[in-house]
Design brief:
The protein is an alpha+beta fold. The protein has a domain of 129 residues: endopeptidase domain like (from Nostoc punctiforme) (endopeptidase fold (from Nostoc punctiforme)), CATH 3.90.1720. It is 38% helix and 17% strand. A hairpin with a 5-residue loop joins strand 4 and strand 5. The longest helix has 19 residues. It is globular and about 35 Å long.
Length: 195
């Protein structure tokens, strides 16, 4: 009886030690290759302002662009711009009741969010705004486009590579993406009146 209990104890001890050891090959540690690690750092360290063609190939906002909520004034600008979505287009319009054209929308956002008066036309807003680089772009800044030989267009950047603008042709204030090829081809500059 003692021998039987002793042999059962030895057998149980062997089984427990066998179950507690994990074979080396069953643990799979994956190490990323150096090429995968170097790619994000190349994008995050890129300082040059990309051309519209380069921007269409890269779908990332630079790390230096903060989210709107980190700056209360810029956040307020974005909220005011968002509140106008759906307002009808009206050439020369500069309020929600009348409607907006693109530069009227920019004037409305700046006046109501910052209490500042900016030039009325898109061309003057482009010429008198401070030019900034793509890496400096933040919510509340402006994107300028040349949509025709004598026609200028402007929108307010809201983050995530999107902007709010008042498109002409019977449309309404809406959100658009910087990644649309139409806007890439017509892009002129990033500008701001925010200090």
């Amino acid at each position: 009886m003692i021998i039987r209990n002793y042999s059962i104890a030895i057998l149980a001890s062997l089984l427990m030690s066998a179950c507690s050891q994990v074979p080396q090959r069953s643990v799979n540690h994956r190490v990323s290759s150096p090429t995968h690690q170097s790619q994000p750092s190349q994008h995050s360290q890129q300082k040059r302002v990309p051309t519209p063609r380069q921007r269409s190939q890269r779908a990332q906002i630079p790390q230096s662009s903060p989210v709107a909520s980190q700056n209360p004034l810029r956040n307020h600008m974005v909220n005011i711009a968002r509140s106008t979505i759906g307002t009808r287009y009206k050439w020369g319009g500069n309020n929600p009741q009348q409607g907006f054209d693109c530069s009227g929308l920019m004037s409305y956002v700046h006046k109501n969010a910052l209490g500042i008066k900016i030039p009325r036309t898109a061309a003057k807003q482009r010429d008198q705004s401070r030019t900034i680089s793509y890496a400096q772009l933040q919510p509340g800044d402006m994107l300028f486009f040349k949509t025709g030989r004598k026609t200028n267009h402007v929108g307010v950047y809201i983050g995530d590579r999107k902007f709010i603008h008042a498109p002409s042709g019977g449309k309404r204030v809406k959100v658009a993406s910087m990644d649309i090829s139409y806007w890439h081809k017509r892009f002129v500059k990033f500008g701001t009146f925010v200090r």
